[in-house]
Amino acid sequence: MTRPVLDNTRARRLFLDRHLLLRPGTGPGRGADLDGVLDALGFVQVDSVNTLARAHDLILWSRRGQYRPRALEDLVARHRTAFEHWTHDASVIPMAFYPMWRLKFARDSARMEARWSEARRPGWTQELDQILRHVADRGALCSRDVGEGETRGSTGWWDWHPSKTALEFLWRSGKLAICHRQGFRKYYDLAERVIPSQLRGVTLSRDETVEWAMAAALERLGFATSGELAAFFEIVTREEAKVWCAEALAAGRIREAEIEMADGARRRSFTTEAALDQAADLPEPSGRVRLLSPFDPALRDRARAERLFGFHYRIEIFVPEAKRRYGYYVFPVMQGDRLIGRLEAKRVGEVLELRAVWPEAGLRMGRARIAGLMAELNRVRHLAGLSEVVCAEDWLRPAA
What we know:
- By secondary structure, this protein is of the alpha+beta class.
- It has 15 helices and 13 strands.
- It has helices at residues 8-18, 31-41, 55-63, 69-79, 102-117, 124-138, 143-146, 162-172, 197-200, 206-221, 226-233, 238-250, 273-279, 302-309, 367-384, and strands at 5-6, 44-45, 82-86, 90-94, 176-182, 185-190, 255-260, 266-271, 289-291, 330-335, 338-348, 351-359, 388-391.
- The strands form four sheets. It has a five-stranded mixed sheet with strand order 9-10-11-12-13, covered by helices on one side.
- The longest helix has 18 residues, at 367-384.
- It starts with a strand and ends in a 9-residue tail after the last strand.
């Protein structure tokens, strides 16, 4: 059967629509509406960098302009409709997905134990038991309550203080759960005191979990290779993903399509009839200039974003200052269905300081586009609780 071709414009729009970036988002950005946003995205990555706003807050605000940080805290700490755990990185995840994470708990636990066995420290098992008893007897605690934080010269969390390592191990393996945060500090409690009882009792087989993870990833991406589907939640192995795709294709539940990339090349991907039908009837994108988080779900896979949008993006936090092409923490800028440039801005006291904007090659920063950019910065300053936007004299830089 001939594979359908999805041209680049329709592919970008389908992808952005599945990421809630094609159309204006009009909900209140809290409660049930925020639960819906989180479910549609699948998860939101949590990150500590706060040059302007934390990554998870900017991701959600980009979809719901009325969103404020307290709303996500409420989902996790008060309403228990979301939980924190791991996808490709630390994330906030819909609570309804908790049963599907049991496979990840088991696999992460086995992987960590294997890694630990290479350089096992004395008393490791006792340390785990002691932490569990401490939490059971005294209630929620943070890493400061059990250890002394990271050691000098640490190369990763396996080099942390043993108690802190044990705390993270118990969280990653599902025995503990994050019950709330203070500032950005995580507090852990026994999973049975955090996760609703109706979900704790649900157990799925490996096959059921793989089926859910793959179908849910494809629903949220619109189209993807088997590797991209496996990487979405990072529950499923690449081999399991290949098997699932082959079986779903043979059963007619999914189909192959040729997706046109920004450079005109075609990439064979899996999709569904429903997604192809939707792609043929999507509205024109919003003309809003959008400031995105570097960790936005639409950009998390840097290689895919470069193929689909022709936008090369890297975070330069760990690049020595003299070698940075742009800046320490640079935000992607989107308009319509295009990534039009990148922007460096940060909070300085009560002010949002715009330091630089680098438009993409061939893009003109005319008056209307500059006005749209300034309007977006004025919107985001409200999220960050800042009083005004101040621009550096040479903020508009040569095209990237």
